[in-house]
Amino acid sequence: MPGLVSHTHTDTDTDNPETQPIPVPIDLPHETPLPIKEKAAIVGGYGRIGPGQPRSRAVPPEAGPRHHRVGRQRGEGAGLRDQGVEVVRAKRAEGEGEAEGAELAMSLHVVAAIYCSLGRFEEAVPVLERAIKVADVGSSGGGGADHALAAFSGYMQLGDTHSMLAHHDRSIASYDAGLNIQIQALGDSDPRVAETCRYLAEANVQAMQFDEAEVLCKKTLEIHREHSAPASLEEAADRRLMALICEAKGDYESALEHLVLASMAMIANGQDGEVAAIDVSIGDVYLSLCRFDEAVFSYQKGLTVFKSTRGDNHPSVASVYVRLADLYYKTGKFRESKSYCENALRIYAKPIPGTTVEEIASGLTEISAIYEAVNEPEEALKLLQKAMKLLEDVPGQRSAIAGIEAQMGVIFYMVGKYGEARSSFESAIEKLRASGERKSAFFGVMLNQMGLACVQLYKIDEAAELFEEARGILEQECGPCHPDTLGVYSNLAAIYDAMGRVEDAIEILESILKVREEKLGTANPDVDDEKKRLAELLKETGRSRNRKAKSLLNLIDSNSQRMKKEGTRRWFKS
């Protein structure tokens, strides 16, 4: 039963300025976009619904996990002729009414699996929805365990299918419905419920819904403590997932505690390879805590085991090289950092059999971030383009591609290619909207970055809409006092000033200033900047509301000169 696996977390714009409205003044003091990190890839599995259930010819107890794999298995091991036979059987059962509800549901599951094996995920969705209706009717009519199991399997398979389409909100809703059916059948403390809870927790992590993931993972850990021996493999897997959640939420000490306990459990069970993977995760936490010597020690421990057990050219070795490259960059050892990047790239250039394109793309993306940091944007863009090309034809990678496009947008913005930056952000945002991630903080930050690109292209109205949408999302997800939200407030105030909405701009700046003084103190440079901006607005408002518009280009140039003097400053923190 699968659990948590080791994780690794010249402008071409064609618009003619002469056809644009007269430029209006904008002062965006926090222009540097946030480096957008690729989300961690989480996988997992779900368990069957009932203990000791009589085997049904149509719906065996292993139906849940089996359906998760059936599409791939059929694609590899069966011809289209055999697949066609299954479709005919399913249609005949549905049309002639020869099958009971559970049998019909099972037949529809197989039809959906065939569609998935052919990459036709959209067509699988209505088939699974039909199967769930059949199973639900049978269950409500007293059909018993077979119908409940069919409904559970249908919801889980539907969740997997939505996941392959990057519809994360629908995927999680389907998994949640399956979990509720399982709890009704087994109670809320059965070990199989724990496996489904963990599966749903991992899906929430993938969607960056960490609070929900934490609740589910805690429940999983409690159930496994009740039913498993101390320091069991199940508990170790739960703690690794909990560590990932804690790390994502910035609770590094708790993450470290869970990883140490997981490592002890793996050692007790003789899982040396998994111990090495946990050592690498411990190194990640030490790096986040700026405990660099301890991070190097943990990385080297994991690297030694990976080399001895998997070979020098295994992708896990490359992933540790990338981490070491990042560490040495952060400690100012750029020669060592570049050397480790080159070692990792050599492995990714000649992948060994069994290496997935997702592993290679993830590694290339992480290396590109290092090249970007050392001011080699062209090399970073090449790596990102390679990563995106690898994922283009892989199902279920829409969100990953969106993350890559967003990072490309950041680089285009930094080198002054604002047209390409806007296009990259726009494409990424469209993908995230389609996948249901329009309410995440990640999405809000990306809207802000696209707004900044629009400012540089004199698309003021579009920038205002983007900043306003970003404000609403970040207020909901992060709160009004979070640095990301305050940064959007500041940009929105500048846009309102440029649009002549001076009173709105003053109101926002007064709110920002109040929060910054409370959080940072009156002597902080950011507080001083906001005071100067507010004082200028108040002075001009007292003089005349209809002040003459200044050139946007001149104002951007003056900002550039100021940034050269003061040094480039990142407003948003990664």
UniProtKB/TrEMBL annotation:
Coiled coil ranges: none
Matching SUPFAM superfamilies: TPR-like
UniProt keyword list: TPR repeat
Keyword Transmembrane: no
Region spans: Disordered: 1-31, 48-83
Top-rank taxon, per record: Eukaryota
Keyword flag Lyase: no
UniProt TPR repeat ranges: 361-394, 486-519
Family annotation (PANTHER family): OS02G0109800 PROTEIN, PROTEIN KINESIN LIGHT CHAIN-RELATED 3
Protein name, per record: Kinesin light chain
Source organism per UniProt: Stephania japonica
Lineage: Eukaryota, Viridiplantae, Streptophyta, Embryophyta, Tracheophyta
